[in-house]
Amino acid sequence: MGKFDHIFAANACNFQDLPVPTAIRLLRLHASKNDGQIECSLQTVLDCQTAPPYYALSYCWGTQTAAKCIKCDGREFFVTQDLYSALHHLRAARAEKLFWIDAICINQYDVLERNAQVSKMNEIYHNAENVLVWLGQEDEHTATIFHVIQDISLACAATFLGVPGLEEWPHQLLEECDSPAMLQQLMDYEHNSVVPAPAAEIWQHIARLYQRSWFERVWIIQEISNTPRAIVLCGRQEVLWLMVGIVANWLMRSKQGREVRQVLQVSFRDTTAPSGITNANFLSQPERRTPYDSPFMWILDQSRRFKATEPRDRIFALIQHTIGRMKSIDDGRTCLQDETVSTIQVSMP
Q1: Are 273 and 147 in a shared domain?
Q2: If you average pLDDT over residues 239-262, what whole number do you get?
Q3: What is the pLDDT of residues 31-56, one digit of tens each?
Q4: What order of strands is seen across the sheet that includes strand 39-45?
Q5: What is the pLDDT of residues 270-292, one digit of tens each?
Q6: What is the CA radius of gyration of the chain?
C-alpha cells in the first residue's frame, strides 16, 4: 500500500495512541449539513466484545491516489476517492451509526499499530452487527441485477426450505446453506419462471457485477466469511450477501447455470467462469473450502485467483482467518511476524 503513504502521513497527526492492546477505534458518521461536508468522529472502545453495535466496511482502496478531504473530529482527514464515495452513500442511509473502517480507524502510518490492528481484523469483522460490502456506484442495470439475484435466491430457498417469503427464510437458510442437501438442491434446481434464459442480456450485466474489483481482493476472504450478516451495497441498491453467494453457487453447480456460463465464456473470451463468480462461490462456503486439517499452504493455493497490492498481503490476509483451523506452514511454524513473511516466496500465475 505504498502508493497511499502520502495520505497516511497527512492523517497521522489525527490519532492518539490506543490505551490497551485490545482497543479499537470506531467511527461515527454524522448527518449531512448544508455544506455537504462529510464529517465524522472517532471513539475508542477497549475491545470488540464490549463495543456498542457497529458496522464493519469491506471495500476496495481503489487505484486512484488522489485524496478527498473529510472532517474527522473537526480536523481535515484524507481518504481515497473510492472510500469517499462509500461514505457519501453510507451517510445518506446510516447517519449517526458506528462503523469500523480500516483506513480511518487505524493509524496506517504507525507500522506497529497497523500490524497489531490487522491481527484483530478477524475478530473485528466477526463481532460487527453487519458487514457492509461496498461494490461502488450503481449503474442503470444495478436495480434489475439485484432483483434477479433476489428472485433466484428466493426460488432456491423456497424449493429447499418450503418457505416463500423473504422475511421467513434467511435465518433458516443460514443454518443450511453449507449442508450437502442444500448444495445438492442448488445442483438440481433447474428451469423456473424467475430465471432468465441463458442468452438473456441481463446475465452479461450480472457477470460484470461479479467482475467488480471487490471480488478480487484477497482481504475479503476474512472480511466476508467471518459473518453471515453481510449486506452488499452498490450505490443506493442493497442485497444480502447470502443471495449473491447462492446465485454464484447456482451458476457454478446447476445444469442451467452451466448453460449461462457457456454463453458468458464466449462473451468474456474466458475458458472458465468469470473469476468474480468463481470467487463468490468460494467465499460463500468458507468452512467447506478450508477444512480444519488443511495446511496453510493449501489454503494459500486456493486463494490464487484473488489479488493483493503487496505480495505479503497474501499471507497477512489469510493467516488470522485460518489460524484456528490450520496445523502448519510446512514445518509447523506460523508466520505472524513481518520478518518471517518477508522470506516467503509467493508465486502467482
Answers
A1: yes
A2: 85
A3: 887 768 899 999 999 999 899 999 99
A4: 75-80, 67-72, 39-45, 24-29, 98-100, 55-58, 130-134, 230-234, 237-240
A5: 555 567 888 888 887 645 444 44
A6: 21
Least Cα distance to 159 among 192, 195, 198 occurs for 192
pLDDT at 4 over 60: yes
The answer to whether residue 262 scores a pLDDT higher than 80 is yes
Question: How far apart, in whole angstroms, are the C-alpha atoms of residue 255 and residue 53?
Answer: 42
Q: Provide the whole-model pTM.
A: 0.83
Grid coordinates in use for 8? 497516511
> Positive or negative CA dihedral for 158, 225, 95, 148?
negative
Indicate whether 75 and 178 sit together in one domain: no
Same-domain pairing of 170 and 213: yes
- Residue 190 inside a domain? The answer is yes
- Whether 87 is covered by a domain: the verdict is yes
Domain count, the chain: 3
Q: Please give the grid coordinates belonging to residue 342.
A: 518477508
CB atoms within 10 A of CB 23: 17
Query: Which residue type, as a one-letter code, is found at position 136?
Result: G
CA–CA distance, 261 with 115 (Å, rounded to integer): 40
Describe the chain by its helix, strand, coil percentages, rounded to 5.
45, 15, 40
CA 68 to chain centre: 23
Range(s) of the domain holding residue 326: 291-341
Pairing status of strand 75-80 against strand 67-72:
antiparallel
Where a domain ends, among 134, 152, 184? 134
User: End of a domain among 81, 113, 134?
Assistant: 134
First to last CA, the chain: 21
As a residue count, the chain comes to 349
DSSP of 18-60: -SSTT-EEEEEEPPP-TT---EEEEEEES-STTSPP-EEEE--
* Cβ neighbours of 75 (radius 10 Å): 10
